[in-house]
Design a protein that fits this description.
By secondary structure, this protein is α/β, with parallel strands linked by helices. The protein is about 30% helix and about 25% strand. It contains 22 helices and 54 strands. The chain has an eight-stranded mixed β-sheet with strand order 14-15-17-20-23-26-29-32. Strands 5-4-1-6-11-8-12 form a seven-stranded mixed β-sheet, sandwiched between helices. The protein has a seven-stranded parallel β-sheet with strand order 16-19-22-25-28-31-34, with no helix packed on it. Helix 8 packs across helix 9, helix 8 packs across helix 11 and helix 21 packs across helix 22. The protein is globular, with a radius of gyration of 30 Å. About 0% of the residues have low confidence.
Length: about 850
């Protein structure tokens, strides 16, 4: 069988290691990563190999030549254009006139899989294509693959969110393809394996198979993975060919001088390297032609060829590229990555988490501290959905935020415009200014809306020609944390593809800076409040609301809505009592106890004054809670049921018809019952605002309700707006001629129970795989987590959902009574704990 090595990677997240080197050529145990792949192919009798090249191809061709030095025949295909992963393979098969099965493998992974066994499986199953699979502790960065009992692939999810992690079985990027499979790839057109070819093959029974391989596999995707892969290799967790003879705690290649040096743990020393007497090397890899002088200490580190470490210098958990000089008595702390040809002069101290680009020099006696001392918090990913959150002025510091701004600026491009808004918290003001500074340094113009509710920011983005926006706020549930919420050009939540692009610039640290005469500007827009108010009023039947003469109480939670909403309410007449209707930054966050006190207070005010209704807004003006005339509170799921019933019945009263509504998959079954009663189609979404917004674009959806107090009325706007929800609720009550308590009296009643099981991130995928196996014969909904119905002829359901930001797995149950829901959540929380401990 012929083999094709995908060797075009830039290795952006491995910078500075890959500044002058394509990713497949990055050393791994003193050999390029791609060389280990080539030796694996040859070991399994694949000696006719083609390498697909793109970035810096000469580095690869000069090392491997025609392949004869390695015992194979090596061909090369240089990219004419970006044809995608599958398109590149098709291009190679056409150019080389390949008409037999091929094995496709990446040149920048580390693996010792039994490829012969995978090929035998493929032939036995007579598949058109076989994907080699493995189990991963953290499957988020890979394609999740689900198979049936016959190993046929049934579902394929590329780069899933935690809610889509239905298994820990992932795509390794190793494919076995029959000619009939790659013939389906269009020639010289962009075409991707995961997005295009595999979904097409899924439609053909038996065409796409999954082989779960035994052995080691690691995608060396970032600097942390690179270091960990070396430590795995040193401790024999992966079967590699490592040159040299084993003696005195090290594998030593020919021509080395090591007399008097001390080795601890496992080590690998490249050819012609000199270690002077008294040098101490512990669990490290030292390349060829290096020189480690007397008294130097190298611990848990990787030194590439030609590196010199001076007398009494020390390195710990560091990586030094080719020809680095570490001077006498210099100290290199953990998680430091030093680019090719850099010099650390004598007595210098490089503090943790620093990355030096190639050719940099640290002066003698200097202490080098990165501007991102806290960046290790984000070593894997910045964003959760469209948000970056962290501890205020500890994790989210001005230097970090300015870098985020520069990365965002690089993503949108020079001379574009980005909108920034914030709440009244001083920390938010600090970070919004730092963000603006980073954007301006990238040549982006900043539109500063200053203190503005999130709904107004979205409206402004929809109306004006901007490339996106960011709102900075104090986290509404944790006063120690700050959130940066990112919007797309039209006011929607930022897409995952764009957030990933920003991450690439952020981690790569090579985003362009604007020339001095192209630095961005800052402007302050006018009349946004007036435009918002006009659109708001035009979307409502103001006369109907005015005639009802509502008496309401409203708690503004000391948020920004208090600066605009009182004027809007004034247009409706009636009587209003305002609570906490002034800006107070110290009260923007309400913990559970404080929130409960606030809702009780609102309910008491409404009841004691004989008012019809009360509302409590969150500080950002997005979400609401409602109190009825009797002092009963409606929050979260119960509020969703109430708003759904209000919307459907008021539309019917007007003579209209509701055909379709959308709610998160975790929503109470009360909504499902209402939908059945009124013959309304119910669409389920993920429990995330971005997915709720996407539902508004589906034909026929006229209402989208959330489980946390947010609601969307698509005829008005595509996003949550708590102020409009208040006004729309008044309008719907006026249409029905009822108080809120009357509407709620006949609502369906279900019960939910929630338990959280502590579950380390690396075990979540395994839990989800066991949950899928357990429920394979049950009715299931796979949208956000695994939702299944464990009892026949019962509407009770269980949702198992990994947490996005914390090491927990949530078990949510829904049943007819509270005892039944509690019993279900206890039972399945126990099962999750068992699955977590089950291992393989």
């Amino acid at each position: 069988m012929k083999a094709i090595i995908m060797a075009g990677g830039f290795g952006t997240r491995l910078r500075p290691l890959t500044m002058n080197l394509p990713k497949p050529m990055v050393p791994m145990m003193n050999r390029p990563m791609m060389e280990h792949i080539l030796r694996l192919l040859i070991k399994h009798n694949m000696k006719d190999v083609t390498s697909l090249l793109y970035f810096n191809p000469d580095a690869i061709t000069s090392h491997f030549g025609d392949g004869s030095a390695f015992g194979c025949s090596m061909n090369y295909i240089r990219a004419e254009a970006d044809f995608g992963t599958a398109g590149s393979v098709r291009n190679a098969t056409e150019q080389l006139q390949i008409t037999e099965p091929v094995l496709v493998i990446s040149g920048d992974v580390l693996t010792d899989f039994d490829l012969t066994a995978a090929i035998k499986f493929h032939k036995k199953k007579r598949a058109l294509a076989t994907i080699v699979l493995t189990h991963a502790k953290n499957p988020l960065q890979f394609g999740i693959v689900m198979t049936n009992q016959d190993s046929e692939i049934t579902r394929f999810l590329e780069k899933p969110s935690w809610g889509e992690v239905f298994s820990d079985t992932i795509n390794t990027g190793i494919y076995i393809l029959e000619p009939e499979a790659y013939a389906e790839i269009p020639y010289k057109r962009e075409f991707d394996f995961s997005k295009d070819l595999f979904p097409a093959l899924l439609k053909q029974p038996g065409a796409l198979m999954g082989y779960i391989a035994d052995g080691y596999w690691r995608d060396v995707g970032n600097l942390s993975e690179y270091h960990e892969a070396h430590m795995d290799a040193l401790h024999n967790l992966v079967n590699l060919e490592i040159a040299g003879d084993r003696k005195n705690g090290a594998t030593i290649e020919e021509g080395c001088e090591c007399k008097g040096a001390r080795f601890r743990g496992n080590n690998a020393i490249g050819r012609a390297t000199k270690l002077e007497e008294g040098a101490i090397v512990t669990n490290s890899i030292i390349g060829a032609g290096c020189h480690i002088e007397a008294g130097a200490i190298v611990e848990n580190s990787i030194l590439w060829d030609g590196t010199r470490v001076g007398r009494n210098a020390s390195l710990s958990h560091a990586v030094a590229c080719f020809n680095v000089l570490v001077g006498d008595r210099a100290t290199i702390d953990e998680n430091v990555f030093i680019g090719e040809g850099s010099q650390i002069a004598e007595g210098a101290h490089v503090l943790p988490n620093v990355k030096l680009w190639p050719g940099k020099r640290v002066e003698a006696g200097a202490t080098l501290q990165t501007s991102l001392v806290w960046e290790d918090r984000w070593t894997r990913e910045l964003f959760t959905n469209s948000r970056i959150s962290g501890l205020s002025n500890i994790e989210l510091i001005p230097e970090f935020t300015a870098k985020v701004g520069a990365a965002l600026g690089a993503q949108v491009g020079m001379a574009q415009r980005i909108v920034i808004s914030r709440d009244s918290d001083p920390g938010s003001r600090l970070l919004s200014r730092a963000l603006g500074t980073g954007l301006m340094s990238a040549g982006v113009n900043v539109v500063d809306m200053q203190q503005t509710p999130i709904p107004l920011t979205r409206h402004h983005l929809r109306d004006a020609r901007h490339s996106g926006g960011v709102h900075v706020r104090k986290n509404p549930m944790d006063r120690r944390r700050t959130d940066m919420i990112f919007f797309d050009s039209g006011g929607y939540d930022l897409s995952s593809s764009k957030s990933k692009s920003i991450e690439r610039y952020f981690f790569g640290e090579d985003f362009p800076r604007a020339p001095f005469d192209k630095v961005g500007t800052i402007e302050f827009p006018a009349h946004t409040g007036e435009i918002y108010t006009k659109r708001f009023i035009n979307a409502l039947d103001v006369d109907l609301i005015t005639k009802a003469q509502f008496k309401i109480a409203i708690d503004y939670a000391n948020g920004i809505a208090s600066t605009i909403f009182p004027n809007i309410l004034g247009a409706f007449g009636g009587e209003v009592v305002s609570i906490n209707a002034y800006l107070e930054p110290s009260r923007l966050t309400r913990g559970r106890e404080e929130f409960d006190r606030s809702t009780r207070h609102l309910a008491n005010v409404v009841k004691s004054l004989g008012y019809q209704i009360g509302f409590i807004l969150d500080a950002g003006g997005e979400r609401v809670g409602i109190a009825d005339e009797s002092g009963n509170m409606y929050l979260n799921n119960r509020l969703l049921t109430l708003l759904t019933k209000l919307f459907i019945e008021s539309e019917l009263k007007r003579g209209g018809k509701v055909t379709k509504i959308a709610v998160p998959v975790s929503a109470t079954s009360e909504v499902e019952e209402l939908a059945r009663q009124h013959d309304v189609e119910l669409v389920y979404t993920k429990n995330a605002h971005a997915d709720m917004m996407r539902a508004t674009s589906e034909t026929g959806v006229s209402f989208v309700g959330g489980t946390l107090g947010g609601a969307i009325f698509p005829e008005y706007f595509f996003a949550v707006d708590g102020m409009f929800t208040v006004a729309k609720t008044l309008e719907m009550l006026a249409v029905l001629g009822k108080n809120i308590g009357e509407v709620a009296r006949n609502m369906p009643q279900r019960a939910q129970s929630r338990k959280q099981v502590a579950c380390p991130t690396e075990e979540l995928g395994r839990v989800m795989r066991h949950a899928m196996d357990y429920s394979h014969k049950m009715k299931k909904v796979l949208i956000d987590g695994i939702k299944f119905y464990p009892k026949k002829n019962s509407e009770a359901w269980v949702l198992i959902l990994p947490e996005k930001e914390r090491p927990y797995c949530t078990v949510l149950t829904d049943a007819a009574t509270q005892p039944e829901a509690d019993a279900l959540s206890k039972e399945y929380a126990g099962l999750v704990e068992d699955w977590r401990k089950a291992g393989e």
